[in-house]
Structures are given as C-alpha cells and as structure tokens.
Automatic annotation (TrEMBL), chain A:
This is DUF934 domain-containing protein. InterPro entries: UCP030820. It comes from Gluconobacter potus. Pfam families: DUF934 (PF06073).
TrEMBL record, chain B:
Gene3D superfamilies: 3.90.480.20, Sulfite Reductase Hemoprotein, domain 1, Sulfite Reductase Hemoprotein,Domain 2. InterPro entries: NIR_SIR_4Fe-4S, NiRdtase/SiRdtase_haem-b_fer, Nit/Sulf_reduc_fer-like_dom_sf, NO2/SO3_Rdtase_4Fe4S_dom, NO2/SO3_Rdtase_4Fe4S_sf. Residues 58-117, 351-403 form the Nitrite/Sulfite reductase ferredoxin-like domain. Residues 125-278, 418-553 form the Nitrite/sulphite reductase 4Fe-4S domain. SUPFAM superfamilies: Nitrite and sulphite reductase 4Fe-4S domain-like, Nitrite/Sulfite reductase N-terminal domain-like. Coiled coil: none annotated. The keyword Nucleotidyltransferase does not apply. This is Nitrite/sulfite reductase. The keyword Cytoplasm does not apply. Pfam families: NIR_SIR, NIR_SIR_ferr. Keywords: 4Fe-4S, Heme, Iron, Iron-sulfur, Metal-binding, Oxidoreductase.
Length: 148, 557
C-alpha cells in the first residue's frame, strides 16, 4: 500500500482498521473504514479516540465520499486524518483535499503515479467557492486561494 | 477593451483558470491515448468538458452561461463552425451551442480558441452542476422584477469545479428567473429559482426542487418560498449535499434528484435540508453584499437613449409595411425602456432545422448585434436568438438586415417555432428522426399569415423517451417510438413550461411517421373550427377537453 499525502498532515499507518459496525466492540481501534453508504454522523461517540477515518470509493464516479469528508470536518469537527482509498483518480486530488481529505491510497495502475497527483494538486491557482481549507478572497466576488 | 454588455467580464485570473482547465483536459486526452486512463475513466472526464461521442462523430457542447454572449464571442463560434465543423452550429434548449462534427484531436485547439474570447465547455455535460440557464429577456423585459444575471453568474462561479458536487448521482440543472412570467421552465429543473425584490432591497429567492423531464416527467415542488440572498449559496449547498449523499446510484434512470424528492416527499426533503443548514457554518457560506456588488460591477449596463419619437417612427413603419408589422407582432417583446424593444430572431425557417445556424448567419448576427443591440446576443431555451435592446426607430433596419440572411421568419411562439432534439440523425439513443418531422411540420405551416391566425402554439419533438426536445412540455408534443423498426410518433397535448406548468397527456396510439403531420394539421383545424374569440389552442383544449382533439387526430380519411 502506497500512501500519498494531499496536505500537511502526515499519513499514519494503523494495524487495526475496523468497520463502522465493529467500532463499538473494539475499544482499541483508532482507525475506521467508512463505506460510501455509511453515515459519518454515526461516528460521533467515537471521534475522541479515532485518529484515522478511511473513506472507501467503490468507483471514482461515486462522489459520496466528498460529502462524507466535509461532514466529518464541518459538522463533526473531526481533526484526525481522513484518507481516501479504492477507485480514485489523480484528477480528483484537489477536490479531495478541498473537502478535507489528507491522504490517499495510491491506485495500483497508471493512476497511481505520484507525479500525476502532485501535478493535479497544483493545477488550479484559484477556486470559485469556499472549501474546508483556510482561504482568502482573491475577488472580485467568490474567488479564493489557499492560505499556506 | 470596453466591457461587454450583458455578461460578466473576465479578469486575468479567470483567464488563467481557463488555461489551467484546458491544460488539464489536454493531459487527460494524453493519458487516454497512452492507456493510463481507461475509456470508462476518460468518458466522464471528457463529458465534464462538453465532449460527447455521438453516432457518427464527437460533439462539443460549448457553454453560454445564462445564454448571453457578446459579438466577439459569437464571431468566434462562427469561425469554429467554419474551421472545425461543417460550417454550422446548433443552438440548444439549454442556451448552449453544439458542434456536431468534431475530431477528438482538434478539441484542445478549439478550447484554446474559445478561451481567447473567455469561453469554454466546462460542465456542459456530465454528472455535475450544468451550465446555469436564465431568462432570455433578463435585464431588458418590462415585466422583470429582478435581473437574474448577476446571481446566475454567482451560481456559475460557485458551481465551477465544485469540490463536493462534481461526481453527483446524475446531471444537475439549475435555472433562474426574475420575472413573474416564467421563461426558464423553472419547475422542470432540478432546481428552479425565482427571484423577487426583498424588503431590504436585496432579492429573495423562491426555490423549486425536483422538477425534470426525461422518462419520468415531474413538476418541481416548492422547497422554500423566501430564501435571503446571503443564504442562497448555503441553501444550494445543503440541497445538493442531501442529494449527493442520498440520491440513488444503483440505477441511472432513478438517479435524478426528482426521484429522491418523490421517494421521500418534499417535506422530508425540506427537513433534511434544514438539518444540514443547522449544522453548517453559515458565515462561511454567506453570500455577502460586497461579493454580489463586486460581480455586478463587472457587468456593463447599456446606455439606453432613444429619440423622443422612436415609438412613433416604429408605429408609422408598421402601418406602412404589413410584413414588417407581422414580424414585430410575433418576434418582439416589451422593453423596460419605452424607446427600446426586445427582438427575437427565429432560427426556425420553414422547412429548416430548428436551432441550426450557418457560420455566415452567425457572423451576420454578430454584426447586427454590434449595430443594433450593444453587441449583446442571447440564446433562448427555445433555440432562438434575442437582441435585447433595439431602438424602436431602428427596428425596421434590423429586420431588413435579418431578411438578407434568411433570419426574418415571423414565427416566434407560433406553430413554426418548433423545438426538436437531434434525434436519430445524430443521437445513438434515438428511436426516430426528430429533425425531418420538424422540417415537414415547418413546411406544412410555412405560411406566416396562417401561423399568425393559429396563434400561440408550441410543438416540441423528442426522438426518444429521454425528452431532450421537451415533448412533455409542448402544447403539442411528439415522442419518437420504435415499432418493429419503423419510426412512429406518440402525440401529447396540453403540456406547458410557462406559468401553470403542466405535463402533456397522451392522445392515443402512436402514429406512423408519414401520418403524423396530417394528424397534427387536423388537430389544428379542430382548434380553428371550434375556438371562441380570443382563445389560444391551450384555452380551447382546456374548455373542450381532449376528446374532440383525439377524434380529429385519429380520424382517417
Ligand atoms: C445527441 C446527444 C444526446 C444524448 C445522448 C442525450 C441524452 C440524454 C439523456 C440520456 C437524457 C435523460 C437524462 C435523465 O432523465 O436523467 C437527456 C435529457 C435531456 N437532454 Fe439530452 N441528449 C443529447 C442531446 C441533447 C441536446 C442537443 C439537448 C438540447 C437541445 C439536450 C437537452 C436535454 C434536456 C433539456 C433533457 C431533459 C430534461 C431533464 O434534464 O430533465 N440533450 N438527454
Ligand atoms: S431525446 Fe432521445 S433521441 Fe433526442 S437527443 Fe435526447 S436521447 Fe437523443
């Protein structure tokens, strides 16, 4: 498994990764795997002990993970690591990052080339809407850029 | 360079963004060619940049945000038609333009040419928020309450490469209007927005959700009556968040927001949206008056000055020239300024292909827009072109100029103003050819005096159940069906997209292609024979019910 970091947070490797259903039984678990149909709000009781939430993308066209990540960051104020795995494309790197995802498990095929991910993160100098990241306005209007 | 009237003026940062988007697309094409991207992976990526694969060739759909472009941009579209297509373009019901004969390897070059005039193909297809449409008379119509273009531009920007909503269950279409007379089919969109002035001067927004046509036509339901401007984006984020999380992804025919709204009910949908809003940091999503003002300041406003006798000059010219008078009657709309008028140029010549324009016509339209309407052009959702601010005393000169290139057809809103999808001539999903039947109908009712006599009557044609030609919303709708390899058309009557939106009802069994035009002619005769004074087709249909029309359509001679 090769990890790629989308932002500043360093990716952590966890030996124990459990599903949402298993979480209640496993007091030692610090990492949980969410399927795209899982409701992140169900993580509420466990957030204090979780270091990592892995979002599994069953296919890159299934965009539920983006909403899950934002809910974790915006509603649940989760401050640990969020990781995306499964079928994801480098073309989604900036979207993932802007929704609060810190790292990805690189795909094993041609889409796993870190250079592609790196390039895509820097593709657009500005964005036209707020995200979960710290940003400042580069008006007129809605445009923002990241504050590094 | 002067700021164009009618649409947002790009600055260097916006232009850099477009270049970055082209570079990204070029990289994607490259990765497809070298095999790192599979065709399944490439397809959604190219669609998000407007590139379709049709029956015979690639089609590129270019965005015309809220349907408005300037003469420089229109000229560029004409050049692209000439250089990269077969010398014509096709204006669509979503106010965009399509080029039907594009080569994949030419697309980056075309995108670069478009970017020279601040145009692009971003989000004209794909399961993302599509190009936003707006009232074609925005900022010009006398009946308007709020000019929707500033907010349409805000929505365009907000939805551009939205990090959360670019991989939705299905495509997502938003339309916005600021007039009490709905000219955007607000209730046939995933989200329809009607703006009106609020107490504090800022607009408030009535929001409909879950409308749509396609194989399951549904009229959108009101989600909120009065959303304040500052909460517009937060509210849209919340609506989309609910849809993205809960919309169906197992079946593409059940994936639109309308299916989710129907499944859980609009009350439950509203509660879910309110639950999102309660958790959101509203300050973060706040649309500030400053941001709105900054975007508004990048729209130029036309200086509307007309001689005091402009109205009288026009009145005299109408008296002197009955042909011109007929065109004025069908093809113009009241402007907010008494010295000006809104002119609609019909792209529906009798026997022609609805919405098609040749590069020569496109270039001429650009010249006429410069001469008569501040260089501003609007594309309508009925596949016509509007020149929004024409001085009344110069309208006849415009009309003469249009006549020279075959664009002076006097049929807007009349039976010749047909909306048709590309159908089997281009589309792989089609059951029937929409274009030839549109041409035959156009030829049958070519006489503009007859069209004027028939009055308001809209015909919409779709080549299959996907309803790209909005047949459900036509006063008379035609749906292409396949019966053992033969092209048939099913007739519906009574649909409407305007105020009082309604879905047409099926009149009876589908008719073979070669009997359809006669059947429609009998429908029209039935109306003409039985209407009472002042009644439109829809009025008579409402009064008499379907039965007489059904009998007329199926009467065999
Ligand atoms: C030839 C290529 C085209 C293909 C393959 C195609 C395909 C489709 C499909 C599959 C749907 C149904 C989507 C759904 O209900 O979820 C649809 C709907 C629609 N399409 Fe097309 N289409 C094509 C061209 C066009 C053109 C040229 C226009 C505009 C003139 C257009 C405008 C629309 C509209 C307005 C709808 C229906 C309304 C709605 O979104 O609810 N399409 N199209
Ligand atoms: S309605 Fe059907 S035939 Fe017409 S363009 Fe849409 S998918 Fe193609």
């Amino acid at each position: 498994m090769k990890l790629f970091e989308l932002g500043e947070r360093t990716a952590q490797v966890h030996d124990v990764l459990v599903t949402l259903a298993e979480l209640a039984e496993r007091d030692d678990a610090r990492a949980v795997l969410l399927e795209s149909a899982d409701d992140p709000a169900l993580l509420k009781p466990y957030l204090n002990r979780l270091d990592l939430v892995v979002l599994r993308f069953p296919g890159f066209r299934d965009g539920r993970g983006f909403t899950q990540a934002r809910e974790l960051r915006e509603y649940l104020r989760f401050s640990g690591e969020i990781r995306a795995e499964g079928h994801i494309l480098p073309d989604q790197a900036a979207f993932l990052r802007r929704c609060g995802v810190d790292s990805v498990v690189l795909p094993k095929d041609g889409n796993g080339d870190p250079a592609l991910w790196e390039k895509q993160l820097r593709q657009f100098p500005v964005a036209y809407q707020r995200s979960v990241l710290p940003e400042r306005s580069v008006g007129p209007g809605l445009r923002v850029e990241e504050v590094s | 360079m002067s700021i164009p009237v009618g649409h947002y003026q790009y600055d260097p940062i916006d232009r850099d963004f477009l270049q970055a988007r082209i570079a990204e697309f070029e990289g994607q094409v490259q990765r497809r060619l070298d095999g790192t991207l599979s065709e399944d992976e490439f397809k959604p990526l190219r669609l998000m940049n407007g590139l379709y694969l049709q029956l015979h060739a690639y089609m590129l759909r270019v965005a015309i945000p809220y349907g408005i472009l300037d003469s420089r941009q229109l000229r560029k579209l004409g050049e692209i038609a000439r250089r990269y297509d077969r010398d014509y373009g096709h204006f669509t019901t979503r106010q965009n333009i399509q080029f039907n004969w594009i080569r994949l390897e030419d697309t980056p070059a075309i995108l670069r040419e478009l970017a020279e005039v601040d145009m692009h193909a971003i989000q004209t297809s794909g399961n993302c928020i599509r190009n936003v449409t707006a009232d074609e008379y925005a900022g010009a119509a006398a009946d308007e309450l709020v000019d929707p273009r500033v907010h349409a531009e805000i929505l365009r920007q907000w939805s551009t490469l939205h990090p959360e909503f670019t991989f939705l269950p299905r495509k997502f279409k938003i339309a916005i209007s600021g007039s009490p007379n709905d000219r955007v089919a607000a209730r046939f969109h995933d989200i329809g927005i009607l703006a009106r002035p609020g107490a504090d001067g800022a607009p408030v927004f009535r929001i409909f959700v879950g409308g749509g046509l396609g194989r399951t036509p549904i009229i959108g339901e009101e989600l909120f009556d009065s959303v304040r401007e500052e909460h517009l984006l937060a509210t849209l984020e919340a609506i989309l968040r609910v849809y993205n999380a809960r919309g169906r992804r197992d079946n593409i025919y059940k994936a639109r927001i309308k299916i989710l709204v129907q499944a859980i009910g609009v009350e439950a949908y509203r509660e879910a949206v309110e639950a999102e809003l309660a958790q959101m940091d509203l300050e973060r999503y706040r649309l500030t008056p400053e941001a709105v003002a900054a975007i508004r300041s990048r729209f130029a406003v036309p200086q509307l000055e007309a001689p005091a006798d402009a109205d009288a000059v026009l009145a005299q010219q109408r008296r002197d020239d009955p042909l011109f008078d007929r065109w004025v009657r069908s093809n113009t709309h009241v402007h907010r300024d008494p010295g000006h008028i809104i002119a609609t140029v019909s792209l529906k010549p009798a026997g022609g292909i609805p919405g098609d324009a040749t590069s020569a016509q496109i270039a001429r339209l650009a010249d006429l827009a410069d001469a008569y309407s501040f260089g501003e052009i609007r594309i309508t959702h009925l596949q016509n072109v509007v020149l929004g601010h024409v001085r009344k005393d110069r309208l006849r000169d415009l009309w003469l100029g249009l006549s020279e290139v075959g664009l002076a057809e006097a049929n807007i809103g009349l039976i010749g103003d047909i909306v048709a999808c590309p159908g089997l001539d281009y589309c792989a999903l089609a059951n029937a050819r929409s274009i030839p039947i549109a041409q035959k109908l156009g030829a049958r009712f070519a006489d503009t005096a007859l069209q004027a006599e028939i009055g308001a009557l809209r015909i919409n044609i779709s080549g299959c159940i996907n309803a790209c030609g909005h047949h459900h919303a036509g006063h008379i709708g035609l749906l292409g069906v396949d019966k053992r390899g033969e092209e048939f058309f099913q007739l519906t009557v009574g649909g409407r997209a305007e105020n009082g939106a309604a879905i047409g009802t099926i009149l009876g069994a589908a008719l073979p292609e070669d009997e359809t035009v006669d059947a429609i002619a009998r429908l029209v005769d039935c109306y003409l024979g039985r209407r009472e004074s002042g009644e439109t087709f829809l009025d008579t249909l409402t009064r008499l019910g379907h039965e007489p029309f059904r009998e007329a359509a199926y009467e065999t001679v």
